[in-house]
Amino acid sequence: MDSDSLYLDIDFVGTSGIILSPEQKAALQTSLVILRNENKFSKVYLWGKILGIKEDYFIAQGTGKDEFVGRKTFYSKDCVHWGLLPPPTPEMKAQSKLAKGRFTGDPAYEFEHTETKKTGEGEDATEEEETITIKEEDRLSTVIAEIDEDVKIVPRAAFVKYPTGQVVANRSFEGLTVSEASKLGSYMHFREPYRLNEKSLLEKANLEKSIDFLDTLEEDIPRGSWSLQFERGSALVSLRSLLWLGYTFYHVPGSRRFGSVYVGLGERNLDLPFML
Question: Global pTM?
Answer without folding.
Answer: 0.89
